[in-house]
UniProtKB/TrEMBL annotation:
InterPro entries: MurNAc-LAA_cat, N-acetylmuramoyl_amidase_3, SPOR-like_dom, SPOR-like_sf. GO terms for molecular function: N-acetylmuramoyl-L-alanine amidase activity. Keywords: Hydrolase. It is an enzyme of class 3 (hydrolase). It comes from the Bacteria. This is N-acetylmuramoyl-L-alanine amidase. It comes from Aeribacillus alveayuensis. The keyword Hydrolase applies.
Length: 234
């Protein structure tokens, strides 16, 4: 399965920031990086980015990347805002968007993503919504856009700045994708469940009778010795 993870906007995008100055892209790219790491744990999943730390990638270029790669899924990461973003307000919560035509797979997947985001973060559930966003309209595959909190809400803005919250968002989205598509995790070495065995050797003899004598002495002392014959090395 091929997935494009899209960190919305860019460092140079005007106006996209919290009231106290954190740019939205800082949050978006962090979640995108964590999400990529989580998705790479899944078997057969390849992850691509449509954004760049060097420039604000135009929306048309982002969707073209996804379409030319013929990926199966497009996930766009965002942080929300209410009003002009110049002062704090009480609007809060998480919402997930799909295209207004409501493609069935997008509907089903977005509901799973929204549910996992709410479970992981504990934030207000604003539900799954439809929109005519460019990245939802122009992509030829299932596309979902996640708004992970409001930059204009003081409490959520502080959360958006933390690595813990960013990781929660990434893990929630990854878990939803893994669950919905039933993708197995990559096989890893499974530690042995056999109990550990520790040995203490008290002697080594060339003659068996010498080993037996020591064993007898140990028995008299209350121990339960074992005589093991070591085969010659070839």
């Amino acid at each position: 399965m091929k997935i494009v993870v899209d960190a919305g906007h860019g460092y140079q995008t005007k106006g996209k920031q919290t009231v106290d100055g954190m740019k939205e892209y800082e949050f978006n790219r962090a979640v995108a990086n964590y999400l990529k790491a989580e998705l790479k744990k899944l078997k057969g999943v390849k992850v691509f980015f449509s954004h760049s730390d060097d420039k604000d990638v135009p929306l048309k270029e982002r969707t073209t990347i996804a379409n030319e790669l013929k990926v199966d899924l497009f996930i766009s990461i965002h942080a929300n805002a209410y009003g002009y973003g110049r002062k704090w307000n009480s609007v809060s919560g998480i919402e997930t968007y799909i295209y207004k035509s409501r493609p069935k797979e997008a509907v089903d997947l977005s509901n799973v993503i929204q549910r996992e985001l709410i479970v992981q973060t504990g934030r207000k559930n604003r539900g799954v919504k439809t929109a005519d966003f460019y990245v939802l309209r122009k992509t030829k595959m299932t596309a979902v856009l996640c708004e992970c909190g409001f930059m204009t809400n003081k409490e959520e803005a502080q959360l958006l700045k933390t690595e813990a919250y960013r990781k929660k968002c990434a893990k929630a989205i990854a878990k939803a994708i893994q669950t919905y598509y039933q993708i197995p995790f990559k096989t890893e070495a499974i530690p042995s469940t056999s109990p550990s065995l520790y040995k203490v050797q008290l002697g080594a003899f060339q003659q068996k009778e010498n080993a037996e004598k020591l064993a007898e002495q140990l028995q008299k002392l209350g121990y339960d010795p074992i005589i093991v014959k070591q085969q010659d090395s070839i």
